[in-house]
Design a protein that fits this description.
Length: about 475
């Protein structure tokens, strides 16, 4: 196949065909049972639902170590506090007092008065304080958010889990606090899927010394990487279903490229809804999870198609001698943005998702553009890869105004953007540190964070939960 996307993907990524189903129930995050996270706020008379206010420009939070009820829980108390601190800091809605500064104040022991005056001297508006108890492999965590100025707790939660779920408990607390205090959905419990060659396996069925690229998933902050694919071919371009239970990706084998659906937590047989007709690439779920848009050569030319998740109701949307690739759905599912060479070079276009009509160019000033991704509501933006000199940067198109802004800083080559489910962050591939790695960044271009460090890692997708 000779599409602009396949030529660039040969350099950046890779694809594969899964040959066996495998049970992956072990990659489930350990179950958490919130014992008072919501109902506890009404049960405890001293906890009220208030938003912490500040006299400064930004509300200041402190997150001291959680108090260990027994010695076995000491490390858990430090981990809970550090992960919770990092989660809240990632969202950038609050100012986080450095942990070494807050460590100067001894954490309050259970039953002792909370030292509001001391925290007030340190300048904290809110303090997240908790306790953790370990019994064998079981954990119980209690947490409160204190309003220092009002001198009362405004949030309370209790969580049960296992020793393996300590980070997940912290992520859950972070999302709960962000929702209550900032009325914003957090991403602490989300995951990234991406492609990696970190295993250094060689491809089957070829004399070329090329390495297998597998699909991995990882927590949003880079912890707990888990491999999904088990073959010895190339795998490419994962896409999450809206419920976070299924991954779609392109899989290559000696017989060609096809779309594979893997229900990663259930161990069910892999599905190929495109049925191996032609070569099929770049699947992406519609926002309601019922359809998949993808690129296919089944009619001889690289075109955009849409089908139901089970492969039924196949419709061809584009019909042009040029190459059409990399579809992405609008939040309402009414439109699809895609890459096409119909203007003489790869650029980003938008069309109606129902029938492919009303095609219009949205990146006219770019020398080359590829890999669009449409933000979720409430934003209405399309991020894409754009050539800047000899490398690439991430740019964002505002659908309402038509304005385009550059997100990355020209360091290395920055490609394949993917919005978080909140639209406030993006993941992307960058060579700024040498090999291709996954990074995240705020939609304002701030808060850059490296997620992967092992091997070459590409084409991230961000789960919705």
């Amino acid at each position: 196949m000779h599409t602009v996307h396949s030529r660039r993907i040969a350099r950046r990524s890779g694809t594969s065909l899964i040959v066996a189903a495998v049970a992956l129930a072990a990659i489930h995050a350990p179950a958490l049972r919130p014992v008072s996270a919501a109902a506890g706020q009404s049960q405890q008379k001293d906890v009220v639902d208030l938003t912490i206010t500040s006299t400064g420009a930004q509300i200041k939070y402190a997150v001291p170590d959680f108090v260990a009820i027994n010695p076995e829980a000491a490390a858990d108390g430090k981990t809970l506090a550090q992960v919770l601190y990092d989660d809240l800091d990632f969202e950038r809605e609050f100012y986080l007092i450095p942990r070494d500064t807050s460590a100067s104040i001894p954490p309050p022991r259970p039953g002792a008065p909370f030292p509001f005056a001391t925290w007030n001297e340190l300048g904290a508006d809110g303090v997240v304080a908790g306790t953790v108890q370990r019994t064998g492999d079981s954990l119980h965590v209690d947490v409160r958010l204190y309003d220092v100025r009002r001198q009362q707790p405004v949030f309370s939660g209790g969580y049960d889990g296992t020793a393996r779920s300590v980070r997940q408990i912290a992520h859950t607390i972070s999302d709960a606090i962000l929702l209550q205090q900032a009325k914003l959905r957090g991403v602490a419990r989300t995951k990234l899927a991406f492609i990696s060659d970190r295993d250094r396996e060689r491809l089957d069925g070829t004399f070329e010394k090329r390495e297998v690229k597998h699909v991995y998933i990882v927590d949003y902050d880079g912890f707990n990487p888990r491999r999904i694919t088990v073959n010895r071919y190339l795998n490419l371009n994962p896409s999450w279903s809206p419920d976070g239970r299924t991954l779609a990706y392109t899989a290559y084998s000696p017989s060609g490229a096809d779309i594979v659906l893997s229900r990663i937590y259930e161990g069910l047989p892999l599905q190929r809804p495109a049925k191996g007709i032609g070569n099929n690439y770049l699947p992406v779920f519609s926002p309601d999870g019922t359809r998949i848009a993808f690129m296919s050569t089944r009619d001889g030319q690289a075109e955009i198609y849409v089908m139901n998740v089970d492969g039924s109701n196949l419709r061809r949307l584009t019909n042009h001698p040029a190459d059409d690739a990399t579809p992405t759905w609008s939040p309402s599912s009414a439109q699809i943005a895609f890459t096409s060479t119909r203007g003489g070079r790869p650029l980003i276009y938008v069309m109606n998702a129902a029938d492919g009509s009303d095609v219009r160019l949205i990146s006219p000033d770019e020398s080359e553009a590829d890999r669009p991704t449409w933000s979720p509501a409430p934003y209405n933006e399309i991020a894409f890869t754009a050539r800047t000199g000899t490398w690439y940067d991430i740019k964002v198109y505002d659908v309402a105004t038509g304005r385009i802004r550059t997100l990355t800083d020209g360091k290395g080559s920055n490609e394949s953007p993917a919005f978080s489910p909140t639209g406030r962050h993006l993941a992307f591939t960058s060579t700024r540190t040498g090999a291709g790695q996954i990074f995240t960044i705020g939609r304002d271009g701030r808060g850059l964070k490296q997620i992967t460090r092992e091997g070459n890692n590409q084409t991230a997708a961000w789960s919705s939960n």
